[in-house]
Design goal:
By secondary structure, the chain is α/β, with parallel strands linked by helices. It is built from 15 helices and 14 strands. Helix 7 links the parallel strand 9 and strand 10. Helix 4 runs antiparallel to helix 14 and helix 10 crosses helix 14. The longest helix has 20 residues. The radius of gyration is 20 Å and the shape is globular. The relative contact order is 0.16.
Length: about 350
């Protein structure tokens, strides 16, 4: 099962070993754009808008990195990837960073030779069904047909859940969220299972979202985050600390509306270090001292990015929950900028 899901760990690891080098930053600068792997389309997280421009929660990470490194948040080439193709695209060097609802696991980190730079969304796997089925618990899904994306941890979690509850299911394999949505709405499967955030995003696009329910069970831990290849610690540091800058900015009260004012200098040394008016953090990354200021300015701090793309005022309607700051009872917590 492991080799089915990860399509040959040794093969991917071999590609990664050959492609990884300490030159990703140089390559991105020479190219003049960041190649970022995203989903094939999940509204709120990564999807083209009516004008063909990529928008979303994960897209914002890519734009922040491009702003930090290149000084231009629009200097990004978005590469759509599926659950099966995403790791090959990263390992081969086709993309510089992968930011598309990818779960941090032991084997992906260690066996596939990738570096998860942090978590931008704490999630868990859930189930969505038509309300008319009258099912109120995933434990009542014995014999159900289930749409499930191949090449994901979702496959393994689903098998574990049904086995531990001594119930059976019939998988309906699909490769993209668009295909899952089509099959589910056509009645090819009774249930669609993926990360709960993905279910909420998918349901928000339905003509009648209220006709579908997300069952209460969350059957797994799914820490989602961007990742890079092993072998280029300098590049990993840039992506990691760009994400940290967005999270820390919210905690410290740095936002898109006050960042210029705060950049003039404050009484808070950490704000000054992040915005580049004190210290040499940028030099340590091989960037200038305004790298984090540009990253935050690209789309706002973490809270602004969340609210705009997937928050409670959007059709997706996600509450912060575990993704609140640690000061608000959530899990978001960055190391110090010093």
């Amino acid at each position: 099962m492991k080799k089915t899901v990860f399509f040959g760990a040794l093969t991917v690891a071999g590609i990664a070993a050959g492609a990884a080098s300490a030159a990703t930053l140089d390559d991105v600068k020479a190219r003049g754009k960041l190649n970022c792997g995203v989903t094939t389309g999940l509204v709120g997280f990564a999807a083209p808008d009516a004008n063909g421009e990529w928008q979303g929660f994960d897209v914002a990470v890519c734009r922040a990195v491009a702003a930090a490194v290149l000084g231009d948040a629009t200097a990004v080439e978005f590469v759509p990837t599926t659950g099966k193709t995403r790791f090959t695209a990263l390992a081969s060097g086709e993309i510089d960073v992968l930011a598309r609802n990818t779960t941090w696991t032991f084997s992906r980190d260690v066996d596939l030779k990738f570096e998860f730079v942090g978590v931008n969304y704490y999630d868990g796997q859930g189930f969505m069904i038509p309300k008319e089925l009258g099912v109120s618990s995933a434990k009542d899904l014995d014999g159900a047909t289930v749409c499930i994306q191949t090449g994901t941890t979702t496959e393994l979690n689903l098998a574990d859940f049904f086995r531990s509850n001594n119930i059976s299911y019939e998988p309906v394999p699909i490769e993209t969220n668009a295909e899952a949505q089509q099959q589910y709405l056509a009645g090819a499967c009774d249930v669609y299972t993926t990360d709960a955030s993905g279910l909420a995003a998918t349901r928000a696009t339905f003509e009648a979202p209220g006709d579908h329910v997300i069952l209460p069970e969350i059957i797994s831990k799914e820490p989602l985050g961007p990742l890079v290849r092993h072998g280029d610690a300098e590049w990993g540091d840039i992506v990691r600390w760009t994400l940290n800058a967005l999270i820390a900015a919210e905690e410290l009260g740095i936002s898109s509306t006050n960042i210029e004012e705060l950049s003039a200098g404050t009484n808070n040394p950490e704000i000054n270090r992040i915005l580049g008016t004190e210290g040499t953090l940028g030099e340590m990354l091989g960037l200038d001292n305004e790298w984090a200021k540009r990253a935050i300015s690209a789309g706002g701090n973490y809270g602004e990015v969340f609210a705009k793309n997937i928050g409670e005022s959007t059709p997706i309607g996600l509450a912060r929950g575990l993704n609140a700051q640690w000061t608000e009872g959530g899990l978001l917590y960055t190391p110090p900028f010093r």
